[in-house]
Amino acid sequence: MGDMLRGAGSECEPIRAIKRDLGVDVPHPPSRQAGSADTRRSAYNRRSFLRLGASAALAGLAWPMFRAEFARAGGTVYCNPNRPSTPAEALAALLAGNALWASGNQQHPGEDATRRACVATYGQTPFAAILSCADSRVPPALIFDQGLGDLFVVRVAGNSNALVAEQSLAYGVKKLGALVLFVLGHEDCGAVKAAVASYPHPAEHFVRLIYPAVRKARSIVKRNGGSPNDPKEVVPVAIEQHVIQTVAQLGAREPFRSATAHNQLKIVGGVYSLDNQTIASVTQ
Ligand SMILES: [Zn+2]
Description:
Layout: H1 2-6, H2 13-22, H3 54-58, H4 63-73, H5 87-103, H6 113-122, E1 128-132, H7 140-143, E2 151-155, H8 163-175, E3 180-186, H9 190-198, H10 205-208, H11 211-223, H12 231-251, H13 256-261, E4 266-272, E5 279-281
Parallel strand pairs: 1-2, 1-3, 3-4
Antiparallel strand pairs: 4-5
Helix pairs in contact: 2-6, 9-12, 11-12
């Protein structure tokens, strides 16, 4: 699975062409990254381009020597140089990216030729795993303003915790070291609307996965004096409840439970507004 996701041994011609254009087959050392578009992240704890061997780079060793030294260290190459190092930083980076997106000031980090060549050569080190809806209006890399190698994204209609989704997210956390797991619902979700419309009758699997949230939402609406049979009232509540329940489900499962207990992972949920493009937290 790792090789499949990292694309190891399957370098395609476009990537080789990029490297030829660059005149390199390895990413640039930190000193050549100064002009990157990632300057917006200066508020975060900056990471060296390569965590191991950074001292060698600072010592002015030639890049090929640096690379060889690094390779002997057997460590991980981080193509996203400003990768957060804690769950709290990772969440802050996501929310900062969303703020840029919502304000129309997105930076489009990590899209340049160097990043493309680096991730093709060294693989991925995403700092966040995202479970989001397949809805075309809610693409995580755009609405969090992140680049190649930053987000490990699982998308399924209704952002439900289906088995394959959970197993994929587990890979992103356990094997790739994602620091935050973000469950992202969104306004006007067609899958949730379908679940509200068909509840409690037989329906497609991805719709039935949302039924527990619909049940909870109906009870909340009723308790608040509303009409549990009015989709306009139930759908927004069901969208929130589905995120809340999915976060709780994942948090009780391995490897997420242990990672959270050891402060290696933060699991959060939010709902994206199509109107103002911001994400409201529903779990904190
Ligand atoms: Zn949706």
